[in-house]
Amino acid sequence: MRRKSMKDVGIKNIPWSLVFVLAAAGICSAQSVLYLPQFADGTQDGAVAWATSISVTNPAPLGTPAASGTITFTQDDGTPVDVTLVDYFGVPTGNTFQLAGGQTKQFQSAIFGGGSTNKNKPGPLKIGFVTVTSTLPVTVGGGFAEVSANGIISAAAVQAAMPLKRQGIFFTKNDNTNTALAVANPGTTAATLTFQLLDGSGTPIVPQVTRTLAANNHTAFFVPDLFPSAPFEMWGTMRITSDQPVVSTALFFIPGGGFVTTPVFPLP
Q1: What is the mean pLDDT of the segment spanning 209-215?
Q2: 203 — alpha (psi -120 to 50), left (phi > 0) or beta?
Q3: In CATH, what is the architecture of 6-157?
């Protein structure tokens, strides 16, 4: 099975009909920020495409004051990037929201032409992370999908996250499965990250690896690419520790090219 580069984990075949699966929500505290550690939007190599969807709701009681906020997209190298967005009905929308209690707004890649019908040709592939700011608590759900003209190939939720210095994921690697990780450093200082693979008994599989992620940067990779000396077949947990808070999401790849999100859990 040919392994994709995690840089390509944004997605696959260009869709003219797109149905999106949205999940994983987080709550943004007052005057604070939430992050979606991975987004993908546009075509790849002229033949494949990815699409992102984000929903924001104000969970406060009906009739309460509005929450105002902004959605910002940032590429791997830390530069902001414009992503053309439409609402559920395909109407062009900006990247801001103002939601009274109980109200919800959906932001989608422009290749959603309206509901499930695509009317807009996607642009070049953009990959990175998303920042959602709000003046009041909001709930954010996000995800991205790989589709073809015949429908969805695969879709995964991206859990809204708060930055952590200590976190972990479950991973599996064998003939048919693989695990990938995306990490974003939303801070203003470079982060030194340490990755450690443990088997089911808690024993290190290979020596730990240290990497640096510049401020406001994003990276993504398959677990074996970070640990080239690791056994071909392995499973367990990967611990991620950092001197600066970072956000992450993990994907578990299954036969046929599908993928699902796997849990990211805090470490004590």
Answers
A1: 98
A2: beta
A3: Sandwich (2.60)
Amino acid residing at 83: V
Q: Is 103 helix (H, G, I), strand (E, B) or coil?
A: coil
C-alpha dihedral sign at 171, 234, 177, 181: positive
Residue 248, exposed/middle/buried by CB under 10 A (0-12, 13-18, 19+)?
Answer: buried
Distance, CA of 99 to chain centre: 24
| CATH superfamily placement of domain 164-266 | TM1070-like (2.60.290.11)
Q: What is the pLDDT of residues 93-102, one digit of tens each?
A: 999 999 999 9
**DSSP assignment letter at 225:** H
If you write DSSP's letter for every residue of 154-220 in order, what string do you get? EEEE---B--EEEEEEEEEESSS-EEEEEEE--SSS-EEEEEEEE-TTS-BSS--EEEEE-TT-EEE
Distances (CA, A) of 240 to 63, 197, 201, 205, 262: 42, 9, 18, 15, 15
Position 20, amino acid: F
Q: Work out the average pLDDT over 160-180.
A: 94
Rounded Cα distance between 251 and 171, Å, is 9
Q: Where in the chain is the domain with CATH 2.60.290.11?
A: 6-157, 164-266
CB atoms within 10 A of CB 119: 12
130-to-155, 158, 166, 207 alpha-carbon distances in Å: 17, 10, 21, 32
Per residue in 30-41, pLDDT (tens digit) is 567 899 999 999
Question: Using one digit for the tens of pLDDT, what is the confidence trace for 30-70?
Answer: 567 899 999 999 887 666 788 899 999 999 999 899 999 99
Tokens of 160: 């809204």
